[in-house]
Amino acid sequence: MTAMQVVFLVTAVVTLGGAVMVVTARNLVHAALWLILTLFGVAVMFALLNAPFFTVVQVVIYIGAISILMIFAIMLTRRVMQDSGPQVNPGWWMSILLALLLFGGLTWMLSTWTGFGTPLPDLPAGVDPLLALGKALVSPDGYVLPFELASVLLLAALIGAIVVAWEKKS
């Protein structure tokens, strides 16, 4: 086993463990911190795949912006939250069964897919993939509308967190 494979396996175990802790943590702040660990594991996976742009995007946007925004929202709305009794659904075993069925189905589907052996086409000479991605994001006939909609969605989430946390003076 090479060093890259060991790093991949350790990162995969840490990422999956963090994801399990996100959905099982009883404290929202702890769940958000586990989410940061999980997203960092995904960033390491991108780095292992030699995708530096996506690694930086994962760290800056998801860990640096989204996770911190979630932590601020949790902290600012703490006074609104109250204990509502047991948090575990009595049908929890159905979710485990469904997850196992989905995992088995995806494993079967991917094991029969032949696309993994197909080589990717080479980029034409002189084409910079990051430059092409940047042009696609901001050109009018590219992905500028989804890019702008995502930014408006993030702005709306930030404004919503401020409105919820705003203390009304009586």
Explain what the structure shows.
By secondary structure, this protein is mostly helical. The chain folds into two domains: 1-82, Four Helix Bundle (Hemerythrin (Met), subunit A) (Up-down Bundle); 128-170. It is 71% helix and 0% strand. The chain has helices at 3-24, 28-48, 52-76, 92-112, 129-138, 144-165. The termini are far apart.
* Major pleated sheet: none
Q: Count helical runs.
A: 6
Report the CATH topology name of the largest domain: Four Helix Bundle (Hemerythrin (Met), subunit A)
Described by the principal axes of the CA atoms, the overall outline is globular
What's the mean pLDDT score?
A: 86
Rg (CA only): 21 Å
Index terms:
single chain; 170 residues; mainly alpha; Four Helix Bundle (Hemerythrin (Met), subunit A); globular
Could you give a short description of this structure?
The chain has about 170 residues and is mostly helical.
How are the SSEs ordered, and which strands pair?
Blueprint: H1 3-24, H2 28-48, H3 52-76, H4 92-112, H5 129-138, H6 144-165
Helix pairs in contact: 1-2, 2-3, 3-6
